[in-house]
Amino acid sequence: MSQWIQMVGIYVRDQDEALAFYVDKLGFRVHTDVRNGDFRWLTIQAADQPTFQLGLFAPGSPMHDAATEQTLRAMVAKGAMPSLVLAVDNCRAAYDRMLTQGVEFTQEPMDRYGTVDAGFRDPSGNGWKMIEVRQ
Amino acid sequence: MQRRSTLNHTCSRRAEALHSGALTGPVQAVQISVIGEPEDSMGTETASQDPELLRRLLRAKDRMDAASQEAWPIRRLASVSHVCEAHFARSFKDAFGVPPHRYLLTRRIERAVTLLRDSDLPITEIAFQTGWQSLGTFGRVFRDITDEKPSTIRARARAAARELGSVPACILSAAHRPNLTISVLEKRRRPAGRIKEPQPTEVQNESVDPDGGYIRARSG
Questions:
Q1: Is B83 on the interface with A (CB under 8 A)?
Q2: Which of A9, A116, B147, B206 could bridge to A132 as Cys pair (CB 3.0-4.6 Å)?
Q3: Model confidence over B98-141: pLDDT tens digits?
Q4: Cα R_g (chain B), whole angstroms
């Protein structure tokens, strides 16, 4: 028996904005972008990680009632969602490239724990750690 | 409360055009005129806050996280968030559950604990690096928040750190954040081991000075 995680979703405040951020600024590619009425199934993936997708979903109908949507939107905006980790081969180079793209960094690259890490947020407020992984 | 949300909402409207970027960026003054406008009433405090406002409050929290050793007076935080000063502390507390100054203290202590654990820096040096200007104040606030002396924490953290190799460091650091649910002043007043209802002792317009501001006033 074999199993692996194929897709994990995060909430974003606006899917077009998230798409522009993750694809244009971070360099991911769109895997699936389909609509059904109000609902839009949007996933992205890293070019060299074909078995995994990150879903970018908007709170709201038809999945959530108005109060739930409001709560989710507040949670995302407050940065209360779980941490995400981006592995890169060169943290400082990635930082420089992303900074010129206007990515909002919460922590500049720091040497610690035997590697280099930085922190940034997507426009919605989802927090990412960017950690250098030496291969 | 209703009225306050309306004011905040007005602030956000005014600030919507101003979007501050990353760690740096020019801070612009926002002219605020208070005009009531209709609002929908939501259940909880946070849910009634506009996500757009929360996103900007998060920016102020991020800035404190990134440089907790710096002084963060309300004026500075409010300008990061593009919120009027009069409403910043209240909005922040509604969003994150603690007043901004208290949040800053917990972050400073957390950093101090990290340095005690991960560095060989003398405790005096750690005090100065984490934002205090006197060792006495640092030691006192440290004990108030953690109920331990810095040297005790150093010894224990080093022993424990050896068992936590696989959790990302930043997550670990957050897990060690002191959980300060009452004001430092209130915590200090309580004799150890006695449970009593916390009295609100926060100052509405508290401003942060590097020595921990208003908590220097010791009783006794």
A1: no
A2: A116
A3: 999 999 999 999 999 989 988 889 999 999 999 999 999 999 99
A4: 19
- Average confidence (pLDDT) per 10 residues, chain A, 135 residues: 96 98 97 94 96 97 93 97 97 97 97 94 98 89
Chosen from A113, A115, A126, A130 to mutate, greatest number of chain B CBs within 10 A = A113
Which of B39, B62, B166, B167 is the mutation pick for testing A, counting most A CBs within 10 A?
B62
Q: Which residue has the tokens 């109000």?
A: A38
Q: Does B171 touch chain A (CB under 8 A)?
A: yes
SS3 of A43, please? strand
Burial B175-203 (b: 16+ CB within 10 A, else e): ebebebebbbbbbbbeeeeeeeeeeeebe
> Which residue type, as a one-letter code, is found at position B201?
T
pTM summary value: 0.71
CB-nearest to B168 from A85, A104, A121 is: A85
